[in-house]
Amino acid sequence: MQTTEKTIADELREWEHQTLLPFTERRPESREVFRTQGGAALERVYTPAHVEDVDFARDIGFPGQFPYTRGPYPTMYRAQPWTMRQIAGFGTADDTNERFRFLIAQGQTGISTDFDMPTLMGYDSDDERSEGEVGREGVAIDSVDDMLDLYAGIDLEKISVSMTINPSAWILLAMYLVTAEERGFDRKKLSGTIQNDIIKEYIAQKEWVYPPRPAMRLVRDSITYSAEHLPRYNPVNVSGYHAREAGSTAIQEVAFTLAAGIAYVEEVVKAGIDVDDFAPRLSFFFVSQIDFLEEVAKFRAARRVWARVMKERFGAKKPESMRLRFHCQTAGVSCTAREPLNNIARTAIEALAAVCGGAQSLHTNGYDEALSIPSEPAMKIALRTQQILADEVGVIGTIDPLGGSYAIERLTTDIEKGCFDYFAEVDKRGGTIKCIEDNFFQMELADAAYDLHRRKEAGERHIVTVTKYRDESANPHVELHHVDEAASGRQLARLRKTKETRDAAAVQAALDEIVRVAKTDENIMPATIAAVKARATGGEIIKALRPVFGTYVETPVF
Amino acid sequence: MIGHRVHRDLARAISAVENGITDYRGALAQFAAFGGPPRGSRRADVIGITGPPGAGKSTLVDRLIEGFRADDATVAVIAVDPSSPFTHGAVLGDRVRMQRHAGDPGVFIRSMASRSAGGGLAPATRDAVRLADEAGFDIVIVETVGVGQVELEIVAVADVIVVVTVPALGDGVQAIKAGLTEIADIFVVNMADRPGANASAVDLKHMVREGKRDIPVLQTIAQDGTGVSELLEVLNAKRNGEDTNAVRAVRFEVVRRARDEAVRRALATLDTPDAAAVLDRLRDHELTRNDAIDALALMLGGPAHAH
Amino acid sequence: MPIKVLVAKPGLDGHDRGAKIVARALRDAGMEVVYTGLHQTPEMIVNAAIQEDVDVVGVSILSGAHMTIFPKIMTMLSDREVDDIAVVGGGVIQEDDIPKLKAIGVREIFNAEASTQDLIDGIERIVAETGRASTRSAQALADGTRVPDPAR
Asked: CATH number for the C4-142 domain, one of 3.40.50.280, 3.40.50.2300, 3.30.470.10, 3.90.1150.30?
């Protein structure tokens, strides 16, 4: 891109000399370097000279077309807005079912389930490790009886259901299939997503049971089973949210997530499945942080990188295998406990970034995010924020509205480059799983988190009301979600009832069968479905397999 | 049976030595004052675990604890991690890998910062081992820092030394050649499911054959326990066999004392007027560095041209 | 002699970012930090505190279970006669709960807004006030006052 005689770079230098310099001599800038939240230094102003290496046809292109920088679909929100999917989960299945119905009544278009820590970690509610945590941060699900009540009255062929669960995901998927079957729904029509992304657990979220290799086998089995039986279901939601919340940079968020995606594809391809038979059902999950420009660029870069990886590395042929679709959640860590209503503003800006970045579904945090799980009023405002974006702001009318901005294109390309650099490093180190075992990602993340923390403490990044404009008067009172201390007792009663009414011998036989299958290379899903149907609990299945698979212990890095 | 009170008393006695509040005798007296158990006629077997970082030492120690506990032997572990040379702070994370034994009164785990001491141990490690012995533990396992260099200090502390390495640690085997054959009683190639494990084991066996002592070379996967029972068998045989390490430990100690004495003499010599005169001439450029070193070495009675 | 701190992470959740940043910051401030790893029960934490003979136990809780976990830790420390080890807390702890925790002996709560410098200063202040656990034991010996031992 050249102008007649002077290049744009020349003009930029001229401007710096003639206009900028005299000005800054009189009134200097407030800081020497402005950085993104991820730590990248920003230019004062971006020009065509900054994007000379970006080619429109090759790198930007059109929505719904390779490399999908502008969006996975040609119409995007002009056909229908993103799925508004507020996560919910607390107490017993009945308690959460009531919240789901409330959200659907308010216009929510998909549901998303948050499980309590014991369910997430594979302990039953009556395990001693579960004490104090049953139904507290999510809903307690011990057996398929609980799941039947959790989704009672919800049309599973019409509403897409997402489940945020990882090390025990294959069991919850089995429960979901048995629930659908017992209620007479057609498996082929079930749409929804299960997180089932074990790799990021070792990197960031730290919910694990078994060591990485057997855990990968469980993910592989659920993906291959799903490829065969569940055409509309996303059996894995490869997630960067947790790494970023744990302090990673934007580049690391995308790079680690897509490195995990690469590992899953390799694992399933190794099992003899054609890449185009399952890759279209892989879905992704990113955070939308507060740094607006960097986030929009991040989403665009993620799509471009994945498209290139699928095409060039795996030789995918179907366009659907190359287009990255993602769920997005606003950043929990950006919310403050002080003056919590300010979080409404933060969340709205983050949600706008997600929409400008082309998210397929979105969860907006409640203003009480830093204090407790969300209250009903907080959830309602969060949902209304999304509805305002969809119906009032006008950004849904044009696709990838910030595409072509010099700044956005530069940041997008830099994030892409950062990702491919990481992939080269990971390959050099023997692949994603090896890197997890060697703590490579964990150490990179720990360093980034510490760096971000120090930059915050050094005053480079401010948090309003915490590091700046702090108001020492009493924190404004907001009504928080009331923890129902009796829920745990009710759940224990439910579990007792299931255990008393089931056929104990059938349960034992089903557990024995899972253990037998686990020792072979057969797909573990059918045996798990049978056990769940016999009312085996999640904790029982997890426990039965520990002697076969072992228990993971991390080597912490700092 | 070792109770929680012994844990507390032992822990505080170790701190007293570690922090220079008292010496070993004082700590022992303190221990007795707290009501620690009297030392019987039996003595703890001390096992040293050394090897490069990332070799899986802590995981292996966790497996050994499991194995010894299955035989009802009580185990104390002293795990040494490096201190920062700049801030003197340290993060001690070894017990994470042994946490399943945390509730077992027959197991005592103590992390120690190296506090800038070289040689892979902390200054108070030796006393901590003796105190754990006094406290009645059957076995004391010492895990060295593992920062890469050969950690010979462990010889003075342990009866049996296990040198752990992993395949494809690059110069892992090279590092061992540099001196660990001198001190190893058992070689363990951990993470034996990784490529290159057999090659590493073969390399080690060749090396052992060149030396004078017969050192078993074992392969383990500490992560899932593979090969650990064989390691326990060899360890138990060594524990019950003749105490070959006593001779080695004495030799090492004599060498160490001789080295300390030589350093002391050298420093004293440097303080003499004769040495000061040599150094003055160096300062005035009348002597080259090498000439100055030769002149001073002569005063020590050592060989001149050693550089 | 460096201050020795146990950084403990109870509960089933994996939110260890804060605990790890604290561990690193305390190390950089010259302290010796023992990290327990995730998913610790109160008993595991107390056993580690005893064996490591730390001056301070820092407990990071974000799961909302603090009113279950802190009382258990405090009771066990007292039962084992090591209640001279100071306990501090951090994480997501509602303001209403802070006085209740202090009433059972938790020395300080550092919420998410506390800077690492606040934490370092707080720990140094607490140790200056109470003295080192091992020093107190040795001092008792030097004074000839035997530490009471009802079990023997």
From this structure: 3.40.50.280
